[in-house]
């Protein structure tokens, strides 16, 4: 994108809740030029009248952005409306600035400001379903079922159960990202984060709230056959679609295959139905098997009331996966030459974090002491490992959370874990407060998928808040939402369709191949490592500081691609934000 945002006053471009803290950030020194500003005025976006005015904060050094910034705190403005935050100098009789240096894009204050983000985020997964006809009145996406050939995917390797060349039905599931691969690790972690959000904030997720453009599939059918009609919340309808695909990836002995993809990448403008390449089932891993067991164990709890038959099946799946892990104590990542030729690696050669997560979820779901014993014998050191934000490579703290919130947990261990979560949260809120933009990322965190990491760190604050409620935790968590939604050093919102300056050129085959804009995609965001040519050239040319290593360009897959696990951590944050004060 050639037209970069020019406003120096950065806000959450979607808006703020009336009762929540509200801050804008202004770069007073940036790229050698200076914005002369001491005061701010929040003006009605329509008639320009001043709703609130005040002094900017003292300058804050913001090295990750290469800036010195000041903050405008307009938290006391609770009157719903649409405003602009102006900065400058002097004060007129009616409280406005005498000299205006710059002004923000429009910013909304209101209850329900995030409802649309939540609906877009859930629908996004529906629109990304493979093997599903989509005719969506909202986005205009109109596609027949994609990758139907996955019903007859070829096993890429021979193994104890299936000979080379044999077929497996692995139809269904979401496309992972801007490509058409389907991978177990991000799938299981994404479903886990969705189910965690639902367990924490059930009132935030309702049936019908997203107007899903598909028949409500799968689990409801089985529930209707067997027991009773259910009105599953849209989020759970969508998570179940992925769980049913995950089920197809499980081998008879409980182990779980790694991924489904073709042996070469489709062109970036190839629509799903144009990609008729043969697809393969590749690899197998113990870390993916463990993530699968954890997600299935969670499903056994979450669907127990509304879809009991599905929940029971999920528990059987989880137990079978865990049995395999107990019989195979060493980490295994089965790699066959050529398996990454047309898809992402998602490789990890250790599995302790994931095994911990799996056993902890099974303990929480079943209360069966055999899982507690397994943890004590195999992973006693993981209880005392410092918590860290969950991502596909590291699910440790999902496991620690499951353990500390399990009825069957050892009280002393659970208490130690709870205080470790609070220590983590106290350190993190201090970091957030020290960062000019209120972003939770450390300098070295501005790597591939940094936006996701900021959101995931924010989610950890909400788990801490559930242990010991503290306004600082909630504020710090919402700050990460504000970052993703546009209060950034680049001035971009890092979520498609949200705010005034969202990414308009995401690296995405469904978008490019069909010419449809799809909202709700959290893109990778700032990445100091320049992992693609377009980004590397931009960094070389501009010498951008870490938080500004971003280009809104289709070619730039290391900053402008979405993946299922990038939007996933938003559900916990939106769960809180959309039910605040209820
Ligand atoms: O999200 C993944 C990121 O953590 C890795 O650093 C990167 C390089 O391996 O891969 C990302 O995942 C991509 C996956 O391999 C293939 N589908 C697209 C994903 C998002 O770019």
From TrEMBL:
Organism expressing this protein natively: Halosimplex carlsbadense 2-9-1
GO terms (BP aspect): polysaccharide catabolic process
GO molecular function: cellulase activity
Comp. bias regions, Basic and acidic residues: 325-337
Region (Disordered): 325-349
Organism taxonomic ancestry: Archaea, Methanobacteriati, Methanobacteriota, Stenosarchaea group, Halobacteria
SUPFAM superfamilies: E set domains (SSF81296), Six-hairpin glycosidases (SSF48208)
PANTHER family: ENDO-1,4-BETA-GLUCANASE (PTHR22298)
Family: Belongs to the glycosyl hydrolase 9 (cellulase E) family.
Entry keywords, A to Z: Carbohydrate metabolism, Glycosidase, Hydrolase, Polysaccharide degradation
Domain of life: Archaea
Matching InterPro entries: 6-hairpin_glycosidase_sf (IPR008928), 6hp_glycosidase-like_sf (IPR012341), Cellulase_Ig-like (IPR004197), Glyco_hydro_9 (IPR001701), Glyco_hydro_9_His_AS (IPR018221), Ig-like_fold (IPR013783), Ig_E-set (IPR014756)
Domain spans labelled Glycoside hydrolase family: 114-573
Domain called Cellulase Ig-like: residue spans: 6-89
Protein name stated in the entry: LPXTG-motif cell wall anchor domain-containing protein
Pfam families linked to this entry: CelD_N, Glyco_hydro_9
């Amino acid at each position: 994108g050639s037209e970069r945002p020019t406003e120096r006053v950065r806000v959450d471009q979607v808006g703020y809740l009336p009762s929540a803290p509200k801050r804008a950030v202004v770069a007073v020194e940036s790229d050698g030029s200076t914005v002369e500003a001491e005061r701010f005025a929040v003006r009605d976006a329509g008639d320009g009248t001043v709703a609130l005015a005040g002094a900017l904060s003292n300058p804050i050094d913001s090295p990750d952005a290469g800036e010195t910034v000041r903050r405008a705190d307009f938290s006391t403005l609770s009157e719903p409306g649409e405003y602009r935050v102006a900065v400058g100098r002097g004060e007129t009789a009616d409280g406005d600035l005498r000299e205006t240096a710059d002004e923000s894009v429009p910013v909304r204050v209101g209850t329900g400001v995030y409802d649309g983000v939540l609906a877009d985020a859930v629908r996004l997964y529906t629109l990304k379903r493979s093997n599903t006809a989509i005719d969506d009145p909202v986005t205009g996406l109109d596609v027949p079922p994609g990758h139907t050939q996955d019903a007859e995917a070829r096993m890429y390797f021979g193994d104890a159960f299936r000979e080379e060349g044999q077929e497996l039905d692995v139809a269904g599931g979401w496309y992972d990202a801007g490509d058409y691969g389907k991978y177990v690790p991000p799938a299981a972690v994404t479903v886990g984060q969705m189910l965690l959000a639902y367990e924490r904030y059930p009132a935030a997720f309702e049936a019908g709230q997203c107007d899903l453009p598909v028949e409500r599939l799968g689990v409801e059918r089985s529930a209707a056959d067997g027991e009773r009609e259910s009105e599953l919340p849209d989020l759970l309808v969508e998570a179940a679609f992925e769980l049913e695909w995950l089920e197809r990836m499980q081998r008879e002995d409980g182990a779980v295959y790694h991924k489904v993809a073709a042996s070469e990448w489709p062109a970036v403008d190839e629509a799903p139905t144009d990609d008729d390449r043969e697809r393969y089932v590749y690899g197998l891993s113990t870390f993916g098997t463990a993530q699968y067991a954890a997600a299935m164990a969670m499903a056994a709890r979450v669907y127990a009331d509304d879809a009991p038959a599905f929940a029971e099946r999920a528990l059987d799946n989880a137990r079978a996966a865990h049995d395999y892990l107990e019989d195979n104590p060493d980490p295994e990542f089965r790699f066959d030459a050529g398996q990454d030729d047309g898809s992402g690696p998602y490789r990890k050669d250790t599995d302790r974090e994931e095994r911990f997560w799996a056993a902890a979820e099974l303990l929480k779901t079943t209360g069966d002491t055999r899982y507690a014993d397994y943890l004590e014998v195999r992973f006693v050191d993981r209880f005392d490992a410092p918590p860290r934000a969950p991502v596909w490579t590291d699910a440790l703290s999902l496991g620690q959370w499951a353990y500390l919130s399990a009825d069957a947990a050892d009280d002393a261990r659970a208490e130690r874990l709870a205080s470790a979560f609070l220590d983590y949260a106290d350190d993190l809120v201090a970091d957030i407060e020290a960062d000019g933009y209120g972003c939770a990322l450390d300098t070295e965190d501005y790597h591939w998928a940094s936006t996701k990491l900021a959101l995931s760190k924010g989610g950890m604050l909400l788990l801490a808040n559930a242990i010991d409620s503290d306004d600082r935790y909630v504020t710090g968590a919402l700050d990460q939402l504000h970052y993703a939604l546009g209060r950034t050093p680049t001035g971009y919102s890092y979520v498609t369709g949200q705010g005034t300056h969202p990414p308009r050129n995401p690296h995405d085959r469904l978008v490019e191949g069909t010419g449809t804009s799809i909202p709700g995609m959290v893109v990778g965001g700032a990445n100091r490592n320049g992992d693609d040519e377009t980004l590397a050239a931009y960094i070389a040319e501009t010498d951008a500081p870490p938080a500004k290593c971003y280009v809104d360009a289709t070619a730039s897959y290391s900053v402008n691609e979405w993946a299922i696990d990038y939007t996933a951590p938003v559900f916990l944050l939106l769960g809180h934000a959309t039910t605040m004060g209820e």
